[in-house]
């Protein structure tokens, strides 16, 4: 039986993350070895040649699952019939740019893209925003797509989640695959809260394991506050310093993890994704904030009923306050 190809639109496809994403998607790493794909690459006119070059290389890679590649510079055509939209292209902050300028420039991108998704995307479209500021860009896109259910818009915090797994695995001498139930709360920014209070390794609570490994409960707490949390939250800056360029392959890999789990379901505990808040854990309704989430029957569900202690509550509130500020700023600019 032949399976109908899934149409995937990737914006910023001529950029660095685009280049790392396209070949893995076409190889089947995102939707599986049984699912053919059609790729729609959206760029601005200056980026079209780079996207066309990537399309030539995709042809040369001869992926059996790849049923077509089209390059566009017009969002309406690029999102026509799309089932998965990966919004990577964004306006980076440049020297002298104020926060308001950055939000306004991105509003000019994500507003029209949200409207194009509203106009032409397939029913059940899934959207993940990677381009920064990812949470608020997703909020802007969702607000321009009134006919698409809000839970179809998400932003990527899976990279932060994966970074937290990597740090814990290295510190505990554990396999990444044995770790579960880590959470990233809040914004994809330095205020995010990577939370290990419910995490386990092969069923053993991570806080206990850290205390045993690091010489006591107090030392473990110090390590979490002074080392782990800032390292995960500022890992993007560390990568830029060491590599001389921002995270690309790890970001693309996380975006693939996000979509794969959304479509196929989570199996090893929960993961993290920024989804539209329904008011859970006191996060104001409508904000696109990172939560512990499970994917069940093709939809993200916020994990309910977790105990949140005073320290966690303080950290979550700080990141959520930043998201509220960003929402106020884009509202004041008339972008939502
Ligand atoms: N959420 C996350 O975890 C992460 C987010 N990022 C963000 O991802 C974004 C992309 O990063 P890179 O690929 O390294 O940047 P890049 O600058 O290499 O590529 C961005 C591409 O987007 C294109 N573009 C700009 N405006 C566009 C529009 N309106 N429509 C279509 N394409 C457009 C540009 O022409 C460029 O080719 C950045 O905003 C970066 O900050 C990066 C790493 C992690
Ligand atoms: O700051 C950036 O552009 C890259 C980023 O989001 C990250 O590495 O987490």
Automatic annotation (TrEMBL):
Gene3D superfamilies: Lactate dehydrogenase/glycoside hydrolase, family 4, C-terminal (3.90.110.10), NAD(P)-binding Rossmann-like Domain (3.40.50.720). Its EC number is 1.1.1.37. It comes from the Bacteria. It catalyses: (S)-malate + NAD(+) = oxaloacetate + NADH + H(+). The active site is at 188 (proton acceptor). Keywords: NAD, Oxidoreductase, Tricarboxylic acid cycle. InterPro entries: L-lactate/malate_DH (IPR001557), Lactate/malate_DH_C (IPR022383), Lactate/malate_DH_N (IPR001236), Lactate_DH/Glyco_Ohase_4_C (IPR015955), Malate_DH_AS (IPR001252), Malate_DH_type2 (IPR010945), NAD(P)-bd_dom_sf (IPR036291). The keyword NAD applies. It is an enzyme of class 1 (oxidoreductase). Substrate binds at residues 93, 99, 132, 163. Residues 157-330 form the Lactate/malate dehydrogenase C-terminal domain. NAD(+) binds at residues 12-18, 106, 113, 130-132. Belongs to the LDH/MDH superfamily. MDH type 2 family. Catalyzes the reversible oxidation of malate to oxaloacetate. HAMAP family: Malate_dehydrog_2. This is Malate dehydrogenase. It comes from Agromyces allii.
